[in-house]
Amino acid sequence: MSLRQIANSLALSITTVSRALGGHSDVSDATRLRITREAERIGYVPNEMARRLQKGRADAIGFVIPGGPEAFDDSFFLKIIQGAWSRLEDLDMDLLVMSAPQGQKEVKLYRRLVEGRRVDGLILTRVREQDDERVNYLLDTRFPFVTLSAGKFDNPRIVSLDVDNHAAFRLALRRLVDLGHSTVACGGPRDIRYSALRLDAFHAVCAELGIEGVEINRDASLEGGERIVADIADHCPDVTALVCNADRVGAGAMREMMRRGLVPGRDLSLICFGDSQLTRLMRPRITVLKLPTEDMAARAIDLLVRLARCRTNGPNWCCAIPMAPPPDDDAILSGRRSLRLNFSPIAV
Amino acid sequence: MSLRQIANSLALSITTVSRALGGHSDVSDATRLRITREAERIGYVPNEMARRLQKGRADAIGFVIPGGPEAFDDSFFLKIIQGAWSRLEDLDMDLLVMSAPQGQKEVKLYRRLVEGRRVDGLILTRVREQDDERVNYLLDTRFPFVTLSAGKFDNPRIVSLDVDNHAAFRLALRRLVDLGHSTVACGGPRDIRYSALRLDAFHAVCAELGIEGVEINRDASLEGGERIVADIADHCPDVTALVCNADRVGAGAMREMMRRGLVPGRDLSLICFGDSQLTRLMRPRITVLKLPTEDMAARAIDLLVRLARCRTNGPNWCCAIPMAPPPDDDAILSGRRSLRLNFSPIAV
DNA sequence: TTGAAAGCGTTACCAC
DNA sequence: GTGGTAACGCTTTCAA
Question: CB contact, 8 Å: A286 with chain B?
Fold first, then answer.
């Protein structure tokens, strides 16, 4: 089951067989036919490791699921896997999945991937607001990576995919304003970029619409969501609506409301970012700012492949990926209990 | 950054460098020290592809997440990834994750993995009761694989990891009997092995305890769970308790009970297999037969590595893995609203 | 249009 | 102890 085998049984050279199977034009049709037939017959499939060694690439993309049991039990990452794989399959590449808690050990894992040339590129999530060690390391080594939901960076070398948070908040907050709300809270941490960016967008849009915006910083976890609702109930009597930066947070908020006998939509309106089982299961249904996670991951793969190609040609990547058109409001599936928003990913 | 580089700058042969770094004993301490120092200095990390090509193995395990959007949004698979990775990391191996809908395309994916020698072994979930194409293919090619939650097979060449379903139902049903239930239903499909096995165990334990057991076959999905509750409410007035074979099913059951105004624990007692966010979020809390998914996946890796080793030595694997001791009842964390059962994985 | 040969970076088998 | 050589299976350059 190797090129040699085919070459031998056909009394041809390995070179010719390789080129025939590789689709090169400098092989006569007759020879090519004989070769493909024989390859078919013995069920030839190229040895990937040999090919990769020769080509000097891994034909694989890596994705590290950020650690901790809480972070893990989240179908967001499953969606990224799904989306990334849908493209990788077509490209005949592999997806390496790992997990690591944030910190020392995490960077070690990235080193392993980069230095062992196990992958050609990486997908990053949960980028930290300050000094993300992974980003620093990858930037230093000039290794291709794409961040998801981390917004636009000052450093033009960082390629990032994100939704338009301002547009999202415009949709969400306008809706709340229409319902008569004038003081709205937004909950999520400040140390993770995606959440910080959403908080910023929240304030900006509040200002635009002339409503009062209250920021509540808690972990992006179930417990964080619970505490946000507790904070509101105990300390912010004016707040009548809450936007959560992640669906786990929304689920926690929901749980605390239940416990306190608060009725979602009556005592406190709830909207959350996310796109998981969690939000679909909530009763009563809440409005969800649906994130195009799979699409973003798929797009990330395309970008990574491009970046990896550039890399072989020289040290300077181009990351001039244009902004996407403004979010598509038509995708709103309205309904009192279930408003779902779709907006296209933008490349930064 | 290669052996050659180190060899050159130290005026040694590549062979010696390789052996020194590989920890072979036939290298003088002085030489080894010089070599390790130099390797450290230039930050040498072996090229994995070269190593794999030479060794003739992939140093990777594959896991295909079974397809369909419903199946995908399930943290069960995330737990498998987590568990598998925890072992693979120590073994310095990779985890390849893919996804495919059940059917033609799925087997194609497995072929790709096997024939391209991309992995040394595979983890299988959701094995079908009849003629699982993947199992047939892998058996034909004698490729190492381990099934999760598929019970014991007649074919001794299939290595499988599962919990003790009988013990699980004994715990669950005894509890229900103690609460006064005498007619209990169990819901799940028959075409997937894990569910069929649980249904069988259900009937066996019902007979043991002398209670009435009603089997309801619906998809292992949210909607399936809803229909099971509908079936019970509409057609089985005697049934006062329900055991669901998967947490998604339990979540669906819960949802339908809510809709019908049925109170879990009063109108219908609910217990379900599973170990996901879903069950933790349900209110009121329900009793969960907690599956040791991560542990099983970790153990599967160890088995796969052993199988892969055997394979190189000859065509006959040994799969003489002893049964684990009986499930550990001490692990029951009792409580009216939250009974969680742990039981150790058994190897079949 | 075909083939010989070099090379990718390792490891392993033998000599010395 | 150490080093030359072959081999893993492929792609690519250069001659013929």
Answer: no
